[in-house]
Each structure stands twice: as C-alpha cells, then as structure tokens.
Amino acid sequence: MAKISVIGSSSMDLVVTSTKRPGAGETVLGESFTTVPGGKGANQAVAAARLGADVTMIGRVGDDHFGQQILRNFEENHVRIGYVKPVTHMESGTAHIVLAEGDNSIVVVKAANNEVTPAYVEEALDAIRSSDIVLIQQEIPAETVVYVSEICAKYQIPFLLNPAPAREVEKSVIENATYITPNEHEAAIMFKNMSLQEALRKYPHKLFVTEGSNGVRFFDGEQEVVVPTYKVEAVDTTGAGDTFNAAFAVALADGKSLADSVKFANRAASLSVTKFGAQGGMPTRREVEEQL
Ligand SMILES: Nc1ncnc2c1ncn2[C@@H]1O[C@H](COP(=O)(O)OP(=O)(O)OP(=O)(O)O)[C@@H](O)[C@H]1O
Ligand SMILES: [K+]
To answer: What is the pLDDT of residues 150-175, one digit of tens each?
Structure first.
C-alpha cells in the first residue's frame, strides 16, 4: 500500500446560506447553517485515504470542540492522526463561508494551522522519511514548506507541492519539488516573470497546471500537452483541486507512469465535482477504477 504523508492545514468550515450578502454594518437573516471539516491539507489526506493509500496527516488542531470533530473525521476516513496534535489554548482553524447571490465570501482564520512550524514537522521526520511521497499545500507557514522541501531533497523523497492558495514561492522550493500542481491563477503568481509557456518549458514533467473542465497542461520534453479530463454533470466543483492532488500523489506512489497518474487524477477529480461539498464528493478507489 502506498504510504503518503500530507503536511498541511485542517479546519472547520462554517457555512451559512442566505439570499443576500450583508454589507458593512448590516444584518441579514440566513437560511441554513452547517459545519463541515475542511482545510486543503485535511481534504487531500481524506481523498488519498479513500483512494486506498496509507495516509499520515501532519498538522495541528486547536484544543476546542472543532478540533475533536476534525480528529474524528480523520479517523472515520482512516487517516493516521499521531502527528495531528492539539495546540493548547488555541482555536482550530476555521473558514467562515457565506453562500449568497450565487457566489461565496470567505474569511479564513488560520489559528492552529500557524503552528505547523518546521520544528513541529521535524517531530514527524520518521513518518516523512518512510513515505513514498510527501504532499504539501500553502495554508501553513511558508518556512515550513521550505523546510519540508529541503528534507525531501536530502532524503530523496518525491515531493508534490500544490501551491494553493496562491502566494509567491521560494525559488529553492520550486527547484526541490518533484511535482508542482498550480491552477492557472496560482501559476501566474508563482511564475510572474515569465509566461505560462516559458514556465512549462522550464519544468518538463514537473509542472502540471490544472485547468478545470479543460484538464491538465504540462510539457513533455518535446511539446506542451493537455490531458483532457472527463465530461461530467458538474454539481459542485469545491474540492476538485484537492481530489486531483491526492489522486495524483496516490497514483505516483503506486508506481503508475506520469501519463497514467494524470489520467487517474483527472478521473478522480471529475467524479468529485458530481457531488456536493469538498470531502462529500471524493471518490473511493473502486469508484475511480470502475470509471477508467
Ligand atoms: N467541471 C469539471 N469537469 C470535469 N473535471 C473537472 C471539472 N472541474 C475540475 N475538474 C478536474 O479537477 C481538476 C482541478 O480543477 P481546477 O483546475 O479547477 O482546480 P482548482 O482551481 O484548484 O479547484 P478548486 O479550487 O475548485 O478545488 C481539473 O484538472 C480536472 O481534472
Ligand atoms: K464537490
């Protein structure tokens, strides 16, 4: 079974639906309220576990009620939580989401996710070193991403950076990464001094740009190729990127070729958009294989 370490955020999404978005100083009546576990790190860990990998999450929660719910959700999805330690006297990360007027507004409070520091991650070095691949995103401090990229380079562990949400990325991290998977917006911010074509050419078989319903673009050493995704009835695209990254990591860790890994990831991500919610739509391995 492929062993994957996911280093990243976990949070609780607090979602209200309303017909109207409140303006400054305004109060409006909402229609519904739900809480659902999220955070890019947690989402990718859950997706990878559903796809059959042996997943260790390396992250932090608060010592609050949300933290307990987040941990329970990991357990229900068979994600190892020995390295998800509660931070005392701190809240879990939260995302405060208003769904109104056909779009969302989100306030993210990082809280315990800020404590996923290099020193904390170092405690999980054994787990990291025994991984077939390490998967990381950017909802944790930038210095932690730098640190992990260095360990992975040192011990020659494949390192997949999903540079989301967008921020500038240290050059050394880009060089150390084995695979980088931005969407188009994140790619434009990461490679702001070059065109997308130039960036793809510079990092053949390494930079994979996801383009939503269009699929995935990369440079194969000779030319730019787009691997189309699958046509589905899209219900909710939340979690598509997280599912793609987890599935890509699982397929690579399983030893699939790059081409087959992109295909597997496209298949998994396209299935995820057919259901509501980020984790709600994440398919099992069987569901993906039946469709391939
Ligand atoms: N409408 C769709 N139909 C089929 N596949 C999709 C669709 N949207 C996304 N996907 C799949 O998911 C992958 C990632 O989507 P996208 O490029 O939108 O990432 P993202 O912007 O990180 O997504 P999100 O932030 O919504 O999770 C795509 O490469 C594709 O495989
Ligand atoms: K979804």
So the answer is: 999 999 999 999 999 999 999 999 99
Q: Which pTM value belongs to this model?
A: 0.97
**Beta strand pairing status for 32-38 and 11-18?**
antiparallel
Can you give the residue range of the structural domain that contains 252?
3-9+38-91+112-291
248 lines ligand 1 (CB under 6 A): no
Q: Is residue 31 part of a domain?
A: no
Q: Is residue 21 in some structural domain? A: no
Residues with CB under 5 A from ligand 2 (ion): 236, 238-239, 272, 281
Write the ipTM: 0.98
Catalytic option among 64, 126, 220, 242: 242
Please tell me the distance between residue 241's alpha carbon and the centre of ligand 2 in angstroms. Answer: 10
Task: Examine residue 101 and state whether it is found in any structural domain, yes or no.
Answer: no
Whole-Å CA distances, 190 to 164, 171, 233: 10, 9, 31
Told to judge if 242 belongs to the known catalytic residues of this protein, a careful annotator would answer yes
- Domain-located, residue 47: yes
